Amino acid sequence: MISDTESQPPPTTGSPSPKQKEGREWLWSMLLGLGILGLVATVPWLGGASDLHTWTLIIMFAVLAQSWNFIGGFTGYSAFGNVAFFGIGAYTTGLLLINNQPFWLGLIAGALVASLFAFLLGLPVLRLRGHYFAIATLGTAEALREFVAVRDVGGGGGGLMSLPLPGLDSYVSFFYAFLALSLLCLLITVFLTRSRFGYALIAIRESEQAAEALGVPTYWYKVGAFVLSAVPTALAGGLYAWWATGFDPDTVFNVGISVEMVLLTFLGGAGTILGPLLGAIAFEYASFQLQISGFSLHNTLLGLSIAIVTIFLPQGIVRLVQVFLPAWGAGNSKPAPGSPSSSPYYLPPRQGGGTRTNRLVEGVRRVRRFIAANGI
User: Which DSSP state fits 342?
Assistant: First the structure.
C-alpha cells in the first residue's frame, strides 16, 4: 500500500512557506525579465545603426528560443524542425506584401498558417518520442526547404524572394516589434509556470507514462504546446522577412536556426522563465563580437557551446544567477524554478538496486499527488 501522505515538520513561525518562496521566485524572474527588456529598449536612443542591427537580431533569436521553450523546455520534446514555422511566417508575409497587402495582414496570415501546419504536423509526429520525434521534425523542415526551392515560391529563382525596402525609420519599429514579441513570450512563460496547462506540460516532461496512467490527456497537451511554440516563431519570421527585404529557403529554413533555438534555451535554462532570454543575449552578443573581431569559426563555437552546456551547465545560466542573487533564492537549497528537481514529482537519480517498476510506482504516486493539488 502506497501512502500519498508524507510526514512533514510544522512550519516555523515567521518563516515563509514553500508556496510563498515559489511565488516570490516567479515574481522575481518576471521582474528581472522586464528589467532586462527595459534596458534593451534603450538601444535606439543610446546606440548607433550597427547597434540597432545587432540587437534586433539578438532579440529575434531570443523570441525563437522563448518559443522553442514551450515545446522543448516545458514539455521535454526536442523539436529540431521549429525553423519550419519561421520560414512559413517569412514566406506567407512576403507573398502578401508582393501582392500589395498590408504588412499586419501578412503577419496574422503567417501565424495562422504556421499554427495550422503545426497542428496537422503534430497529430502524427507527437505520437513519437525521443530521437524519433527529433528526426521527424528535422526531416519536415528540410522537406519544406526543398519544396520552396524547387517550386520557386518566392519567384526569384530557387525560392529567392525580394521585397520592397521599408522606410529608414521603420528599422526602429522592427526592433520594438521584436521586443514586444519577446515580452509577449515572457508573459506566456510566466502563465505556463502558474497555470494548469503549464503544470500538465511539466508533468509530461517529468513522467509522461505516469501522467497517462492518471488520465491526463498528454497527447492533446503536447499538440497544444507545439502549436503555441509555432505562433511566435512565425511572427518572428514575418518580421524578419520585411526587415531583411530579401531571403531564400537556405536562409529562413536553415536547420542551424533550430540548433540555435535549442542551444540558447539550454544555455539559459530550459523550462525556466528567464533562461531563453538570458541564453540568447549572452551567446548571440558574444557571437557578434567574435565576428566583428574577425573570428570565422562560428559553427565550431556553436558545436563546442552545445557540448560545454550539456556537461557543465545542465541547469543553465539561470542556476548561476540564482546563486548570486539572494532575493531570488540564493542561500537556500531550492533548485532553480522550472528545473527538473524543482518539481514536486521529481524523481531523483536511481540509487543502488532500485527497479524500473519501483520508479514507475513512485512516479505515479508523485504525479497523482501533483495533479490532485493543481486540478489538471
Answer: G
CA–CA gap between residue 52 and residue 185 (Å, rounded): 21
Residue 135 corresponds to which cell in the numbers above?
A: 528526426
* CA distances for 58 relative to 244, 292, 297, angstroms: 14, 15, 19
The C-alpha atoms of residue 13 and residue 294 are separated, in whole angstroms, by: 59
What is the tens place of the pLDDT at every residue in 356-376?
556 556 666 665 665 555 555
DSSP 350: P
Q: Which three cell numbers stand for residue 82?
A: 521549429
- Work out the number of other CB atoms within 10 angstroms of the CB of residue 193: 20
Write the DSSP string, 19-31: HHHHHHHHHHHHH
Distance between start and end Cα atoms, the chain: 24
Output DSSP code: residue 340. G
CATH code of the domain made up of 20-347+354-374: 1.10.3470
pLDDT at residue 184, rounded to an integer: 97
Cell, residue 215: 488520465
Count Cα neighbours of 210 within 13 Å in the Cβ-side half-sphere: 27
Report the distance separating Cα 345 and Cα 348, nearest Å.
9
Q: What's the chain's length in residues?
A: 376
Bridge partners (DSSP) listed for residue 246: 162
**pLDDT tens by residue, 47-94:** 889 999 999 999 999 999 999 999 999 999 999 999 999 999 999 999
Handedness of CA 320, 278, 205, 253 (dihedral sign): negative
3-state secondary structure of 153: coil
State the Cα–Cα distance between residues 31 and 273, nearest whole angstrom. Answer: 11
Coil, helix or strand at residue 162: strand
Identify whether the C-beta of residue 346 lies closer than 8 Å to the C-beta of residue 352.
no
Q: What is the DSSP letter of 246?
A: E
Q: What are phi and psi of 247, to 5 degrees?
A: -160, 165
DSSP designation for 31: H
Determine the Cα–Cα distance for residues 280 and 188; give it in Å rounded to an integer.
18
Nearest to 265 by CA among 249, 283, 243: 283
